[in-house]
TrEMBL record:
Organism of this sequence: Anastrepha ludens
Record's subcellular location: Secreted
Similarity comment: family membership: Belongs to the PBP/GOBP family.
Any Pfam family: OBP47_like
Signal recorded as keyword: yes
Taxonomic placement: Eukaryota, Metazoa, Ecdysozoa, Arthropoda, Hexapoda
Classification via Gene3D superfamilies: 1.10.238.270
Tagged with keyword Lipoprotein: no
Residues in the signal sequence: 1-20
Protein name, per record: Odorant binding protein 50e
GO CC, one annotated term: extracellular region
């Protein structure tokens, strides 16, 4: 009897600790100077020549952009004109992540076969991870695959809800889809980090509880509907 009672009280305490008093999402916990990236150790991945190729591609884009701006916009593409369209104030560039980040993420997924013709290919994602994640870190692969699936379903669901099939592209030809997925997959994997790769300390656990409560899927702000129009 007493034993049962103790168990009940103990699990009630554990539960309330695990759900540690709801956060006020406008007030992130102050964890001082602490590196959240150290909480879920990232696996070693052999990315082959993809980073070098994609850096070169970004350099090339940067040169193209500089040339575009240098000739008073006369070489602006259709997309670029739309971007500056006065009737489309939501399309302010400030709402948007910098193109280098967006285009780099897309390039990396393309070069690793994860993205084919602007769609994620889950079979290729899994094959790439199976092949490229180092032996000692293979435990995290099924979670990364689950994160991809969760993020893909969620982001696609949001698009369908607003009646949009494809993402608009930036003037330089990349769409934000890849970098949204990249951020979402990282955040989802952080929340579901395998115990083996998780640093079980106070700051990391608080950061995770806060993220779980206050930053649900897709974990990233999606561009506004205007931006998503093809
Ligand atoms: C949450 O924090 C914000 C910003 O400090 C404050 O304005 C708001 O009243 C708080 N909400 C609750 C429910 O305490
Ligand atoms: C990846 O590896 C897992 C575990 O070995 C295996 O079950 C799965 O079929 C592999 N996936 C692909 C796409 O090769």
């Amino acid at each position: 009897m007493e034993f049962t009672y103790t168990l009940v009280v103990l699990s009630a305490c554990l539960l309330s600790y695990a759900h540690a008093a709801a956060f006020n999402c406008s007030e992130p916990p102050n964890l001082g100077a602490f590196d959240i990236h150290s909480c879920c150790r990232m696996p070693e991945i052999n990315l082959g020549d993809a980073p070098a190729k994609c850096s070169a591609y970004i350099k090339e884009l940067t040169t193209q952009m500089a040339n575009m701006n240098g000739v008073g916009g006369s070489k602006q593409t259709e997309n670029n004109k739309n971007m500056n369209n006065q009737n489309n104030p939501d399309a302010a560039a400030v709402e948007y992540p910098a193109y280098a980040h967006v285009c780099y993420a897309e390039c990396m997924y393309r070069e690793t076969g994860s993205m084919v013709e602007n769609e994620f290919n889950m079979d290729n994602v899994e094959k790439f991870l199976n092949k490229s994640v180092s032996k000692g870190d293979k435990d995290i692969v099924p979670q990364i695959v689950r994160s991809f699936e969760a993020c893909l379903n969620n982001i696609k669901g949001h698009l369908e809800a607003v009646g949009i099939k494809t993402h608009a592209k930036l003037p330089m030809g990349c769409s934000p889809f890849a970098s949204l997925m990249f951020s979402c997959v990282n955040a989802e994997t952080f929340l579901n980090c395998p115990a083996k790769m998780w640093k079980n300390d106070h700051n990391c656990n608080v950061a995770k509880s806060f993220a779980a409560q206050c930053n649900p899927l897709p974990h990233v702000p999606l561009p506004t509907a205007n931006w998503l129009k093809p």
